[in-house]
Design brief:
Elements (H helix, E strand, L loop, with lengths): L7 H14 L11 H16 L16 E4 L5 E4 L2 E7 L10 E4 L12 H8 L7 H5 L35 H6 L2 H12 L1 H8 L1 E3 L5 E3 L5 H13 L18 H18 L35 E2 L3 E2 L6
Antiparallel strand pairs: 1-2, 3-4, 5-6, 7-8
Helix pairs in contact: 1-8, 2-7, 2-9, 6-9
Length: 310
């Protein structure tokens, strides 16, 4: 694990790497297990505001009316709004603005399609955004009725380099599962910063961390979900189940519960040294402390591996 106490994006990326590869099991009692369980519930309460959505085929469908075609299959007719927002297509040349409900949380929105295209895809040589506008999809306002551009908030998602939508990463970040997961996190980002990413001061006060921030956290989620490391990616949910993104959010909640116990509450990236030997903290704590030894850990499928601590 690479330690970086200055860049919180690296902190989250390191923690996600650790949670991906180091999953010990069968190594005895878990230190701080009760704290982790309480953290897990706290994260879920913040994510779902005390009312987690139903997952599965019986979950309610998204907003929109449906109709049946001659083969008997059902198609959704999207409900539109007078607010336009960028679709964040991974291929910038094919990016466009749409006004379908529900409006995604965390994205800038505009009072006209033209204004959205101007602000979001102003340098688009292909002109795809403007050419894709359809006045028939607008409710109450046509894309030419106003050119007023709403100023997006400073908290909008970080601008990311274009990704080929046909690539593996592009398919992931364009999936409904990833978009719904990210939208849920965006909708509670203030609570994540102010209720979850807290550390305890020497005066026993809990205040927002100076190291762990939501903006860095969501970027690390993006990297680990779309790129990963060593062919391993962050699990974001199930595409084949309605509200399948909830599974991904629960996975993230478990990760944060662990992180809040191990590092966030201390406003540090490194694992703290606890065991004293001769009134000093020995380097051997990196190989195991609190009665545990890394060399005896079992990983992933609980197959014993030999580790050398250097």
């Amino acid at each position: 694990m690479i330690y970086d106490v200055h860049v919180s994006f690296s902190n989250f990326l390191n923690l996600s790497l650790l949670s991906t590869f180091i999953q010990p099991c069968g190594t005895g009692a878990l230190d701080g297990g009760i704290d982790r369980a309480e953290n897990f519930k706290k994260v879920l309460d913040v994510m779902f505001e005390g009312s987690p959505p139903q997952v599965g085929s019986s979950a309610s469908n998204s907003v929109g009316s449906s109709s049946s075609n001659q083969e008997g299959s059902t198609t959704q007719t999207p409900v539109t709004s007078d607010k336009w927002y960028p679709d964040y297509n991974g291929d910038y040349a094919k990016g466009k603005c749409i006004n379908e409900l529900p409006l995604p949380t965390g994205r800038p929105n505009y009072s006209s399609g033209e204004g959205c295209c101007q602000a979001s895809y102003g340098n688009q040589a292909s002109g795809f955004c403007l050419s894709s506008l359809n006045t028939d999809q607008t409710t109450g306002t046509s894309p030419t009725s106003s050119t007023t551009v709403d100023t997006p908030s400073a908290s909008s998602l970080t601008t990311r380099p274009p990704v080929d939508p046909t690539s593996e990463a592009g398919i992931i970040i364009s999936s409904e599962t990833f978009i719904n997961m990210e939208s849920t996190l965006e909708s509670v980002k203030d609570d994540i910063d102010n209720k979850l990413f807290l550390y305890q001061t020497p005066a026993f006060q809990w205040i927002p961390s100076s190291v762990y921030k939501y903006d860095d956290f969501i970027e690390s989620i993006y990297v680990m979900a779309s790129e990963g490391v060593a062919n391993k990616k962050l699990y974001i949910g199930d595409d084949d189940v309605e509200n399948g993104h909830v599974y991904g959010l629960v996975n993230i909640a478990a990760f944060l519960a662990q992180s809040m116990k191990e590092t966030i509450q201390y406003d540090a990236c490194d694992e703290n040294s606890w065991d004293l030997v001769g009134s000093k903290y020995p380097l051997s704590n990196a190989c195991g402390q609190l009665g545990q030894s890394v060399s005896t850990y079992y990983f992933i499928s609980c197959i014993s591996v030999s580790l050398i601590c250097v």
